[in-house]
């Protein structure tokens, strides 16, 4: 009886006829960053679908009125115009009345919390307190505004990006943008816009004069004071003309909760990559993670920590850096 080695027993009948080779896979080469047409093609995988655009409240053309838009953010799905005389203060929840031209029927102070309510567990009990002053959910506001304000948006005067002839390399361009808004007698209006390119270089930035009287510049968040706007003559129509010359319908725009920026710009554009959707909240919509939290978690960077308010340039660059990191991490996984 022929003796079999231990190896032959394990290998079976074909063990003596078969050879095996162990191939070691080499390291995956990951580029430091993508550029140009390659970047454009990589980002296309993150462009929001039509359903996502609608769910997030991006402006869509109004089927009944020219140069007007509708947004799913408006629960009634109808155009918001200045003929709405009764409004709800977006800071304190009080009801107030304005005239057809936005003039206040009664001028009264607004007492409110500028921070957000947060839930925390104390002694096995969940309590809600405001981030601004740690006051309880039923506490009186810690700030006083001159007047009540609303977050209404005038949905007329919208423009839409147009398609262009395909470039030879298929790169229609990649930009990131961020806007700052103020409360006016007409609701929310644009006061600053910043656009950066794929290299995080500023290619367009401008302060913008609102069409209506400003009630609150939101300096704590926008970083813009009344004195900054003293000599500003640029209107939203001027901004729209510049952006339409820079962007085509196929240009990829990056941003965080970009629907707010496009509504402020009165710009209809579908080719968008929104970092709030690329890095979604674990609870899903309508919850969204803050941009500053995403930067702290993934890039270990602190942003929006200035006492002078947000910097739209900083926020736009943060979106570029987040997507650069995302593409690099996906490349490591072979995605």
Question: What layout of secondary structure does this protein have?
Answer:
Layout: H1 6-11, H2 36-43, H3 50-55, E1 60-61, E2 69-70, E3 86-88, E4 95-97, E5 110-112, E6 117-122, E7 125-130, E8 143-145, E9 159-160, E10 174-184, E11 187-197, E12 202-207, E13 214-216, H4 219-222, H5 236-246, E14 252-255, H6 258-265, E15 267-268, E16 272-274, H7 275-278, H8 291-299, H9 312-332
Parallel strand pairs: 9-15, 10-14, 14-16
Antiparallel strand pairs: 1-2, 3-4, 5-8, 6-7, 10-11, 10-13, 11-12
Helix pairs in contact: 8-9
Give a concise summary.
The protein is an alpha+beta fold. The protein has helices at residues 6-11, 36-43, 50-55, 219-222, 236-246, 258-265, 275-278, 291-299, 312-332, and strands at residues 60-61, 69-70, 86-88, 95-97, 110-112, 117-122, 125-130, 143-145, 159-160, 174-184, 187-197, 202-207, 214-216, 252-255, 267-268, 272-274. The N and C termini lie far apart (55 Å).
